[in-house]
Amino acid sequence: QVQLVESGGGLVQAGGSLRLSCAASGSIFNIAAMNWYRQAPGNQRELVAAITSGGSTNYADSVKGRFTVSRDNAKNTVYLQMNSLKPEDTAVYYCKISYKERLFSTFRDYWGQGTQVTVSS
Length: 121
Hints:
Number of helices: 0
Distance between the termini: 41 Å
Radius of gyration: 14 Å
Oligomer: single chain
């Protein structure tokens, strides 16, 4: 059993900042990728940022230079620092991890419950 607890969402004015956290716990041997997605009403869920176990990162073009993804492997936690927020960043943000329960298990994906981010103009 795996649990993902997301926090840090809320309401912020345009130009402001928020920091999202996603903490994983439970039957986890190893976490490979830790990703942040978002989904706005009427839109498909899109990848916002990704970070590997080694710290390599990847960002959607729309957030490059404004968002920073990081992780604390000792705490099985991934963060998303969001600066210079825009109204178009308004969405539900989800974290997803790719993890193994045991050394010789296959990797599985697990999603968080989502946290609302609302940016007012």
